[in-house]
Amino acid sequence: MSKKALVEKRPFLVLSVCAALLYYFVQDSAMPDPFLVLIKGSAVGLLAVYAWLRHGSQSARLLAAALVAAAIGDMAIRFDFVAGGAAFFVYHVIALALFLRHKGKPMEGKDSLIFITLLLGTPLLAWYLPADEGMRIPVALYALALGAMAAGAWASDFPRRMVGAGGVLFVISDLLIFSEMGPLADSVLPALLIWPTYYLGVFLITVGVITTLRKRAPELRVVH
User: Fold this and answer.
1) How far is it, in rounded angstroms, from Cα 127 to Cα 133?
2) Cβ contacts of 40-45, under 8 Å, gap ≥ 24
3) Are 95 and 152 in contact (CB under 8 A)?
4) Exposure b/e, 50-84, CB count within 10 A at least 16 = b
5) pTM beyond 0.85
6) Average pLDDT of the chain?
C-alpha cells in the first residue's frame, strides 16, 4: 500500500505515529508542559479513534476503551505517578477482558513457558526492582495486572507476532520504569527506551487486533 493510500484509509493511525515520534523528540524540550501532555496523550488517543472507526464489534469497542484509559494514563503520569498507574491498571483489566474473549488453543513448549514467565515472572521481577522497599508491594500489585494482560495477549487467538509481541514490549517498558527506581536510577537507558517500547507495544496490539477482527467479521467493517 502506498503512503498516500495509507494516509487516506488510516489517517488516525498515521497521525498517531506522527504524534508518538514528535513526543519522543520534544519530551525533554522547553515546550510548555500542557502541549507536551496533549502530544503524548494524542499518540495513543488517536489509536483509540482508529480502533473505534475501523470495526464495529464489541471487541473493537473494548480495545478502544482500553486505549482511552492508556491515553489518560500517559497524560496523568506526567503529573502524578499513582494516578497514571491507576489509569494503566484499568487499561490492563480491559485489555485482559478482550483477550479472554478470544482465547487461543492450548499452548505447549516454549509458548507455554513464555506465558508462565509473563504471568508470574513480571510481578516477581517488579518486586525486586525498586530500591525503596515501601514501593515494592504497590509496584508488584500493578505488575500482576501487567503480566496478566501480556500473558492474555500471548494466549489469545490473535497473531503472536503482533499482539503477543506487543504485550511483551509493554512489559519491558514498565519494567524499565521500575528499574529507574533501583538498578538503572543513574542510567540513560530507561529514558531512551521507555516511550518507544511502550508505544510500539500498544501500536502492535491495536493493529493486530483490528486487522484480525476485520478479517474475521468483514460485515462489521466501518465504511467511511
Assistant:
1) 9
2) 40/74, 40/75, 40/78, 41/71, 41/72, 41/74, 41/75, 42/15, 42/16, 42/71, 43/16, 43/19, 43/71, 43/74, 43/199, 44/16, 44/70, 44/71, 44/74, 44/199, 44/202, 45/16, 45/71
3) yes
4) bbbbbbebebbebbbbbbbbbbbbbbbbeeeeeeb
5) yes
6) 92
Q: How large is the average pLDDT for residues 154-181?
A: 97
Q: Give per-residue pLDDT as tens, 97-135.
A: 999 999 988 888 899 999 999 999 999 999 999 999 989
| Identity of the amino acid at 70 | A
Output the nine-digit C-alpha cell for 198. Answer: 511502550
Which grid cell is 99?
483477550
Reduced to 3 states (helix: H, G, I; strand: E, B; else coil), residue 214 is helix
